[in-house]
Amino acid sequence: MFGYYVELALRSLRLSRALTALMILAVALxxxxxxxxxxxxxxxxxxxLPGKSSKVFMPRLDPRDKEGYDPTDELPVxxxxxxxxxxxxxxxxxxxxxxxxxxxxxxxxxAAIDPxxxxxxxxxxxxxxxxDVPFRFGQGWSAADDASRARVAVIGADLNDRLFHGExxxxxxxxxxxxxxxxxxxxxxxxAVPHFYDLNTGNYSVGEEVFVPLGTAxxxxxxxxxxxxxxxxxxxDEEGMETANxxxxxxxxxxxxxAAVVSYRAFLDxxxxxxxxxxxxxxxxxxxxxxxxxxxxxQRVVPSDVRLQVWLAFGFFLVCLVNTVGLMLAKxxxxxxxxxxxxxxxxxxxxxxxxxxxEAAIIGVAGGIVGLGVAFLGLAIVRMQPxxxxxxxxxxxxxxxxxxxxxxxxxxxxGLIPAWRTCRIAPALQIKSQ
Amino acid sequence: xxxxxxxxxxxLRRHRxxxxxLVLQIALTxxxxxxxxxxxxxxxxxxxTPSGIAEDQLMRITVSDIGPRxxxxxxxxxxxxxxxxxxxxxxxxxxxxLPFGGNAWNSGLKxxxxxxxxxxxxxxxxxxxxxxxxxxxxxxxxxxHPDEYRWVDDLVAEKATSxxxxxxxxxxxxRLFPDKSALGxxxxxxxxxxxxxxxxxxxxAASGKAREDVNDTVLMPWRMxxxxxxxxxxxxxxxxxxxxxKDAVAALKGVNPRRVVVEARPYTEIRGRFxxxxxxxxxxxxSVSVALLAVTALGIVGLASFWVGxxxxxxxxxxxxxxxxxxxxxxxxxxxxxxxxxxxxxxxxxxxxxxxxxMKQYELPRLPLAYLPVGATVLWLLGQVAVLxxxxxxxxxxxxxxxRG
Lengths: 434, 405
Hints:
The complex is a heterodimer of chains A (434) and B (405).
Chain A lengths: L1 H14 L1 H28 L11 E2 L23 H10 L4 E13 L8 E8 L3 H4 L4 E4 L4 H6 L3 E4 L1 H8 L8 E4 L2 E9 L22 E4 H6 L9 E2 L15 E2 L2 E5 L3 H21 L13 H7 L5 H31 L1 H9 L4 H36 L12 H27 L3 H7 L1
Chain B lengths: L1 H13 L1 H32 L10 E7 L7 H13 L4 E7 L10 E5 L9 E7 L3 H5 L3 E4 L8 E2 H5 L8 E5 H7 L9 E4 L2 E9 L16 E4 L1 E2 L7 E6 L4 H15 L4 E7 H8 L1 H35 L1 H9 L4 H38 L8 H25 L10
Parallel strand pairs in B: 4-10, 6-11, 7-9
Antiparallel strand pairs in B: 1-12, 1-13, 2-12, 3-4, 3-8, 5-9, 7-10, 8-9
Helix pairs in contact in B: 1-11, 2-9, 2-11, 2-12, 3-7, 9-12, 11-12
C-alpha cells in the first residue's frame, strides 16, 4: 500500500512542479539555516572535557584590596602567585595545575626557517593528565622537573611537524626565546573548545604549541602574555610578578566525587579565612568552586550573536513552515475532486489521509536533502569568516540525522491540517460538482 | 474599491484557514524583518564609528626579539630611526594600542583621592607623540612637551618620576567636568595624579568598552617599548601605505635579522578585523531578510494562484454580469491589501514583542516608530507585486467560464 501512496504522491507532485519546488525550497532554506546556526551553537557551547568536565573545578578567591569593594562583585577568575602556590602545594585535590599563558618565539636549527611566535603555556605537571591531553610521543614532565625548574618542554603536534617533520623529537632541543629546552613529550593534535582553562587569551583561542614548567618559564624569563588584573598603586613589573598585587595565574583542580568537592570547598573556605585573619586579604572571605561547564556558563562564553542567529534561523524556519502549510493546503484542496472520486470508489478516510501525508513526507525528505546542501553551504560560509571559533563549525553525523528527522517531522506536521481538511471532504458533494 | 471590501471579507471567511496562514506568514515576516533591519542599522552605526585618526595612512608592526633584551631604549631608538629613514614615512612611534586595534589597556579613573571607587574605567594610550602620529585632532590645550615623556619601564621600575600630565578626549572631559573646562583640572589615573593639559577631539578605545563610552580615553606621556607589548605605529604619505609597510618590515629586519615579525598590517585591515563579526552579522541578517521577503512573496503567489483557480467559475459569473477586467484585477489586489494589512498590524505588535526581548537580552535600544510606516509600505508593495500575476490571470478569465463545470 505504501508503495502505491508513494507513486500517487510522486505523480501528484509532478503535476504541479512550481508549487512542489517552492515547498521543497522553503523547507530546505528553513532547515538549512536552522542547522547551520545550531551546528555553530553546538560547537561553541560544547563540552571541552567530555566525560570529565564535572570533575574539574576552578577554585576562586578574592585577594583584592578594600578599594571599590562591592559585595556583589564577581570573584576573580585568576589567582596571585602566592595563593596559587599555596593551594598547589597543599595537595588537597587528586590533581592540581597552576598555569599562565605565554607567547614565545621559536627558532629552528634550520637557518632557512625564520623564527616564529607560537602560543605557549607555562604550567605544572598535572595539566596533561587532568585535561586528558593526548600524547603522540613521550609524556609530560615530572613533579621533580617542576620543583627543580628543569629546562624541559612538551611541544604540540603542529610545532613538531614544523620543526622536526613529524618525527619523534623526544630528547631533542627546542629553542624558545633563546632558551634551550629538552623535549620530553610531543602531543597528538589537541585543542580545547572552548579554551576553558584560560579564557583571558580568548574564549576560542587556538591551542598552545609549547608547554613549559611554570617555574622554568619564570626562571628563563619566557614572555608572558596572559590576562592580568592588578590593584593598589604599585605598578606591576614583569620581573616582580611573584610578589605583585595582581592575579595572573589560572588554578584548576580535579576532584573525584561529591565528598571530595565538599571537603575541598571547606579547605578553600578555611584558606580564605586564614588569609583574611593574616591581613593578606582585605575583603571578607568569599570563595567559589565552579566546575568546567558551570564556569563557562557563568562567563557567557558563547557569543550572544550566535544565540541571536539561532533564534533568527528558527523564526525563518517558522515562516517557511507556515508558508509550506499554506501551499500544501492549497495544493491538497485543489485535488478535492480527485479525493472525492477516490472516496466514492471506496477509499477510506484513513487511506486518503495516509496518502496525503506520504506526499508531505516526500516533500520533507526532499527538503531535508536540499536543506543539507544549504547547511553545508552555510557552514562553508561560516568557516570563511574570520575568528578562531568559526573554523570549527563542521556538520557531524548526529546533526545530519537531526536535519532529516526535523525536516520530515516538520513537513508531516505541516501536512497534518491540510490532509485532515482534505480527507473530510464528502465524496458525494465533489462528484456532483464535477 | 470600498464596495468590494464586504464581498471580499465574505469570501475570505470561507477560506479562513489559508487566509489565516497567509496573514500569519506576513506578520512573522514583518516582525522578523523589522527587527533584522533595526539590528543591521545598529551594527552599521557601530561599524562606522569615527576614530578621528588618519586611518588609510596608518599601519602597525609588532616584532618580538629573541634572547636577552638589553639596552632597550637604544634599540627602540635605532628601530625608529631605521623606519624614519624610509621615504614616504611621515611619522612613527611605539605605542600601546590603536583605536579598535583589539589590545586595550585600562585604568580606573578617580576625580580625587578621597573617592573610594573609580568614577570610570578608561582606556589609556601611551607612546611618544602618539596623538600626533595617529593624526588625532587637538580641540583645546596642548600636546605633550618633549621633556614630559618618560620611558614606561623606568616608571614601572621607579627609576623615573611621572610628569603628572595627561590629555583626555572631549567626551571624557565633558563627562568628568560637565560645567567647566577640563583644562588644568587634576584627576587620578590608576592612582597617579594627572593634570589635564589637552583635549582631543576623539580617540576611541582599542576594545572592551561600551559604545557610548568608547571615547572615554586618556593619553599619557609615556614612551612605550616593544617588550611591554608595544607596536610600531607608522603613518605614511597618502597612497603609499602598502609600500611603506613592506619597507618598514624590511628595515626592522635589517636592524635585527633574528627578530620575529608578529604582525604587519595596514590600519584599515586592523579596523576591519575588529568589526568583522558585526559585518558578518549584518550580512547574515540582510540575506535572511531578503530570503524571508522572497519566501513570503512566493507564498502569496502560490496561494493567490490557488484562489484564482478555485474561483474561476465565480469570476466568470461576475464577468458575465458585467464586471470589467479591471474590477476583477482590483478585487484580488484589494483582497491582498486587506490580508497584508492584517498581517502588518499583527506583525508590528510581534515586532515590538521581539524588540522587547532583544532589549532585555542584547541591550538593544527600542525600535524607533519610524519603522512602522516603512515596514508597512514595504510589505504592502511586496504583496501587490506578488499578487499581480495571479490577479492578471484572474482578470483574463472569460465570461463564458460561468457556463462551465
